[in-house]
Specification:
About 45% of the residues lie in helices and about 15% in strands. The chain contains 6 helices and 7 strands. The strands form 2 sheets. A 4-stranded antiparallel β-sheet has the order 2-3-1-4. Strands 5-6-7 form a 3-stranded antiparallel β-sheet, covered by helices on one side. A hairpin with a 5-residue loop joins β6 and β7 (about 205). α1 packs antiparallel against α2 (about 40-80). The radius of gyration is 25 Å and the shape is elongated. It comes from Danaus chrysippus.
Amino acid sequence: MANYYNVIESQKALESLLMKKMTEFEKQLKASIPGSNVSVAGLYDEFSCFKDHVWSILSLLRQQISDLNQVVDNIEMRHRRKYLLFNGVPEEPNEDLSNSISDICNNKLGIRDVTKDKIIACHRLGKHSEGKHRPVLVRFVDLNLKTAVWKKKASLKGSSFVLSEFLTHQRQSLFLLARKRLGMKNCWTLDGNIIAKLPDGTRHRIDTEESLSKLTVNTDVTAEAPSSGNQDSSSGYNSKPKRAVRAKK
């Protein structure tokens, strides 16, 4: 996904530079047009037409990149639907993570169906850092089991564990922005979709920053400062999952 973000940023930089240069040239052209010089005036008209044409091409290119990026993001998110991130799981030497996760699901969430053989992949993300517990990425055997675990996340409130969905980079950024604008309690995720609740009680799915902006134009919501307690938010780890390795029994 990083390549797509780089393309978008490069395209935006190109737009900015091109428009800056054309604006500078347009100012110089206006200043150099004598009142009686028809040919130079015609040149200015042609330049204005060219500028509009270039801008329309860049706008079309931006839309195509955005559409392509959305398609790729949807594909990647579908691949991540069976994954959940468990934060706050203590790190131990020679740890058995699949056993630790099944214990949390059994004892903290009350879901007895989660056994070691129902966990396809289970590993930590990021580099080891002394004094910090890296999040554990878990892939369940099927979507129904993952959904059952996710729906019981409120049971972890007050504990050291935090459960979050494995969002893509694009959705993670949009989710954090939505919580900043609408408040933490008014935004959550479900199967990778970002859901927002407005003061009138209506719920809306947020797919893009533009759709978020439309919701917040006439919305009077005081955003809350992030707390250190348990939140059903994404942890910010967006690296691609490793190749699935079935957990040891």
